[in-house]
């Protein structure tokens, strides 16, 4: 009886050591997955910050475009007034040419800003897509972490 008890104790000690090693590995894996989850969370926060930055850029560009369009309209009105007044003096013709040049420059700026807004919109869409993918990955990792925790709990029990 003593011999069988000793053998049984040795078997239980070995089994206990194997379970302790498995528990340590499981805890290490859980810690690593927690770290990865934290990193993903930080990445998501960065994407949110970038989204708000892109939104602010779009708002700023839109307000600049509106201001330039208003200036352009003002210049158009001035040009029309000069035409209506039919001032033929040299000064008015120089002013007219100057206003036409300024109008062309503003039109080019408006076009550039509109192109920039389109690029920012595309970038924003890309960021939203990336954010959605990161959220899906985060959810999958949470499921894996929960599964590992459940496995660890079962092993410990």
TrEMBL record:
GO cellular component: a single term: cytoplasm
Q: Provide the alphabetized UniProt keywords.
A: Coiled coil
Q: What Gene Ontology terms describe what this protein does at the molecular function level?
A: dynein light intermediate chain binding; microtubule binding
Coiled-coil annotation reads 58-151
Q: Which GO terms describe its biological process?
A: cytoplasmic microtubule organization; cytoskeleton-dependent intracellular transport
Q: What is this protein called?
A: DAPLE protein
Record the organism: Aramus guarauna (Limpkin)
